[in-house]
Design brief:
The protein is an alpha+beta fold. It has 7 helices and 14 strands.
Length: 279
């Protein structure tokens, strides 16, 4: 009996030490992410701080990061789906799409001038954005149910920042932990839900008048509504809610491209257009 008690006690001690180390590692990663974003300096790969970091553990870090950012006055302005195309997943060796928060202080308007000095490694994505009629706190059953909850559709540009110090050792878990690279995002004037067929939206992005990217709504998971349903339910499963003042973006139409200097214009047909400059 005494031997069994000793063994049980040893197991408890080892488990406690493992949990303590994991917690310490999480806190170190969260602090590093916040400092990296504030100082605009490369971020040590979270998987280097916590070897064997899983996607589930990275999402747990992401949730705690949002809490920590909230305490610093940085509120969530919406949510993003990332790596929603097969090419993007191959690029980062991901098995599936990713989701992350976007912070309100990253929101910019059409016509903005973006300074590359504010980024470690700036990229661009043409996307479609959505806002809801009401607060969503529970999983949505299906696409038809989701359509009834969407109020407005927007042309959108995401400007993610891939800020990792060791790009050659980059893992999907690293990307998840750092809010899937969320940085700045641009949303143009919206139109009412139902006024445009989002799957058939075609977008062309030009740089100084020359085409640098193009895509269609179906590039995101082959179906905008499938991508949006996945994002909405993923956000809720993380323990968050979605409010009408927040923006949901469903992933890149076409490619994710490097942010080079010049004047950009993205034309979305019936959905409108947005423009911005990178210096």
């Amino acid at each position: 009996m005494r031997k069994a008690f000793v063994v049980f006690g040893s197991v408890l001690l080892v488990t406690s030490l493992m949990l303590c180390c994991a917690s310490a590692g999480e806190e170190e990663i969260i602090t590093a992410i916040i400092e990296s974003r504030a100082a605009n300096k490369p971020l040590p790969n979270p998987s280097g701080t916590m070897p064997g970091l899983t996607e589930d553990a990275a999402y747990a870090i992401q949730v705690k990061l949002v809490d920590a950012m909230d305490k610093k006055g940085k509120k969530v302005g919406g949510y993003k789906a990332g790596l929603t195309t097969e090419n993007a997943r191959k690029r980062f060796k991901a098995k599936g799409a990713l989701l992350g928060p976007m912070f309100k202080d990253g929101s910019v308007e059409s016509g903005v001038v973006i300074d590359r000095k504010d980024f470690i490694k700036l990229f661009l994505e043409t996307e479609i954005g959505y806002s809801t009629k009401e607060k969503i706190t529970k999983p949505v059953k299906d696409v038809e149910s989701l359509k009834k909850l969407i109020k407005t559709v927007y042309p959108a540009i995401e400007l993610p920042d891939i800020r990792f110090a060791e790009m050659k050792k980059l893992t999907v878990s690293d990307i998840i932990a750092d809010a899937v690279g969320s940085s700045k995002y641009l949303v143009g004037p919206g139109i009412p839900m139902g006024k445009v067929d989002v799957n058939n939206v075609k977008v062309t992005l030009t740089l100084d008048g020359k085409k640098v990217n193009e895509g269609t709504g179906r590039d995101a998971m082959e179906d905008q509504w499938k991508a949006l349903l996945w994002l909405v339910n993923g956000v809720v499963e993380q323990g968050w809610s979605i409010t009408p003042d927040q923006i949901l973006i469903t992933g890149a139409l076409g490619k994710m491209i490097p942010g080079k200097p010049g004047k950009y214009e993205a034309k979305y047909g019936d959905l409108g257009s947005v423009s911005f400059t990178i210096k």
